[in-house]
Structure formats: structure tokens, C-alpha cells
Amino acid sequence: MDAVNLISAGALIYCRTTHRYLFLLRDGGRHSGSWGLVGGKIEANESVVEGLNREIAEELGGVIRDAKLIPIEKFTSDTSNFEYHTYVI
Tens digit of pLDDT for each residue in 31-81? Predict the structure, then answer.
């Protein structure tokens, strides 16, 4: 079996006080104009959760405090060289 070459993670963020979900409108790149989750590529020296937290800080401009991180799914490509971890926060 081949080693995983790329690991990414994304999170659907739900606010309990407003009862709203956060989606990002992609700008530029292959998926420009589409809505997506907060997240991105996990670096080689990071755990999935560390990488997801870094991506959240980069994309939202800060960290989410006192949040519950719930794993939903781990997708692995047919060739086993790509993983995508999905969470709800």
C-alpha cells in the first residue's frame, strides 16, 4: 500500500448562540465562487488537529476558544495517497 502523500482537514463551524453555520466563499483557484469549509492542507510536522487549528487561525484571523471538536469522517482516496478529515466545531 502506498503512503499517504497529502492530508487535509476541514471543519463545519456551528454557532450555538446564533444557530448559524459558517461557510467560506472561495476566491481564486480551482474552486473559485464555491462555498466550502474552513480548512486546508496539514503540514508534515503537524497532527491533523494542529493543522486544522492553524488553518482556522489563518482563514478566520483568530482561534476558536472553548469549542467542541467532533470528528465526522475520514475520507481516503482509492489510491490511498490522499486523506481528508471532516469535523464539526
Answer: 899 999 999 999 999 999 999 999 999 999 999 988 999 999 999 999 999
Overall size of the chain counted in residues: 89
In sequence order, what are the residues at sequence separation of 6 or more whose Cβ sits closer than 8 angstroms to the Cβ of residue 19?
Answer: none
CA 9/CA 89 separation, integer angstroms: 12
β-bridge partners, 82 = 6
Which ranges in 1-89 belong to alpha helices (H)?
48-60
Is residue 8 within 8 A of residue 83, CB to CB? The reply is yes
Residue type for position 79? T
**Is the separation of the CB atoms in 11 and 87 below 8 Å?**
yes
The verdict on pTM exceeding 0.70 is yes
